[in-house]
Specification:
It is a single chain. The chain is an alpha/beta fold and 289 residues long. The protein has a single domain, classed as TIM Barrel (Alpha-Beta Barrel). Helices cover 46% and strands 15% of the residues. It is built from eleven helices and eight strands. An eight-stranded parallel β-barrel has the order 1-2-3-4-5-6-7-8, surrounded by nine helices. Strand 3, helix 5 and strand 4 form a beta-alpha-beta unit. Helix 2 packs across helix 11, helix 7 runs parallel beside helix 8 and helix 10 packs antiparallel against helix 11. The longest helix has 23 residues. The protein is globular. 49% of the residues are buried.
């Protein structure tokens, strides 16, 4: 079916008091696995391409974006395309022509006033192009190979009063909030601050996004959705599934040279992870679809 917009999926999820799953893709196998997993779960999904993934692909956005669009258009469920953690204005401006309906503009590394100014400029341009735009306040941490940020560090968590001003002054369509998760976690040990989430939900009139969800246990994810999170970003969990399947196959078959043998297993493992996580977000923890 034709691509849908991220804004449409998030709005629909917010109305239903649920959350849409958004998975970061790096290879064609990621794309195929996410769509297959979403089809198995019979649920819409967001395919996300991060700025780091673009750097990995020699700095070229279009090859992966075109592949994602081609797979999405043949999907049996609604699929949207989102450009994630964009810091480069040049990359931001490539989004509309590459098929993206939304962008997460990431200036959270900057002091508040600079973050606000940069985000406001990005929002003005994005809205002129019909793009839905997400930003981040607080610091989720764990990006670019840095160790995960201590979720209790000063300034790490999103302040509700500051968040309300930031949303009003920047004009963003959604806000990624720091409530205790971290990017690139390989263990599911994060504990979320549900009291903070409750205050953020009560004080803000835009959808809230959870980054770093791979490190969040199932019950915490379910509680986050019940508490107002409407978009859940997942990346590392797919890479753990893919790498684990490939590592096991190569350990058992050291003579193997046909990459299709192990890439297919990696793709299948990622698809299973996608279906499981979507089930958790829908309140079907423990299911595979």
């Amino acid at each position: 079916m034709p691509l849908v917009t991220t804004g449409e999926l998030v709005t629909r999820a917010a109305t239903a008091r649920s959350a849409v799953a958004a998975f970061n893709i790096i290879t064609l196998e990621h794309v195929e696995a996410v769509v297959a997993g979403a089809e198995s779960a019979d649920a819409p999904v967001v395919l996300q391409v991060s700025e780091n993934a673009v750097k990995f692909r020699y700095g070229r956005l279009l090859p992966l974006a075109r592949a994602a669009v081609a797979v999405a258009e043949r999907a049996a469920v609604p699929v949207a395309l989102h450009l994630d953690h964009v810091q480069s204005d040049d990359l931001l401006r490539q989004a509309p022509d590459a098929g993206f309906s939304s962008v997460m503009y990431d200036a959270a590394r900057l002091p508040y006033a600079e973050n606000l100014a940069a985000t406001r400029a990005a929002v003005d341009w994005a809205h002129s192009q019909g793009l839905w735009i997400e930003a981040e306040l607080g610091e989720v941490g764990g990006k670019n190979g840095e160790p995960p940020l201590d979720a209790h560090a000063p300034g790490a968590r999103t302040d509700p009063v500051q968040a309300r001003a930031f949303v009003a002054d920047s004009g963003v369509d959604a806000l990624a909030v720091a409530i205790g998760s971290s990017h690139a976690m390989t263990t599911r040990t994060a504990t979320l601050d549900h009291d903070l989430l409750k205050r953020l939900t009560a004080g803000l009139d835009v959808p809230l996004v959870l980054h770093g969800s791979s490190g969040v246990p199932d019950d915490e994810l379910t509680a986050a959705v019940a508490g107002g999170i409407t978009k859940v970003n997942v990346g590392t969990a797919l890479n753990l599934a893919m790498t684990g399947a490939i590592r096991a196959f190569l350990a058992a078959h050291p003579e193997a040279v046909d990459s299709r043998k192990y890439l297919s297993l990696g793709r299948e493992a990622m698809a299973g992870t996608v279906a499981r996580i979507i089930g958790v977000l829908a309140g079907r923890a423990g299911t595979t679809a």
